[in-house]
Amino acid sequence: MGTATETFYSVIRRQGITRRSFHKFCSLTATSLGLGPLAAGRIANALETKPRVPVIWMHGLECTCCSESFIRSAHPLVKDAVLSMISLDYDDTIMAAAGHQAEAILDETRAKHKGQYILAVEGNPPLNEGGMFCIDGGKPFVEKLKLMAEDAMAIIAWGACASWGCVQAAKPNPTQATPIDKVITNKPIIKVPGCPPIAEVMTGVVTFITTFGKLPELDRQGRPKMFYSQRIHDKCYRRPHFDAGQFVEEWDDEAARKGYCLYKMGCKGPTTYNACSTVRWNGGVSFPIQSGHGCIGCSEDGFWDKGSFYDRLTTIKQFGIEKNADQIGMAAAGAVGAAVAAHAAVTAVKRLASKREDVDHNS
Amino acid sequence: MMDAIAPGSDARPDLAALAADASGERAVGRPTVYVYEAPVRICHWVNAFSILVLMVTGYLIGAPLPTVAGEASDNFVMGYIRFAHFAAGQVLAVFFLTRILWAFVGNHHSRQIFYIPVHRKQFWKEVLHEIRWYAFLEREPKMYVGHNPLAQTAMFTGFTLFVAFMIVTGFALYSEGAGIDSWQHKLFGWVFAIWPNSQDVHTWHHLGMWALVVFVMVHIYAAIREDIMSRQSIISSMISGERQFRD
Question: What are the residue boundaries of the Cytochrome b561 bacterial/Ni-hydrogenase domain, all occurrences included (chain B) (predicted)?
Answer without folding.
Answer: 35-241
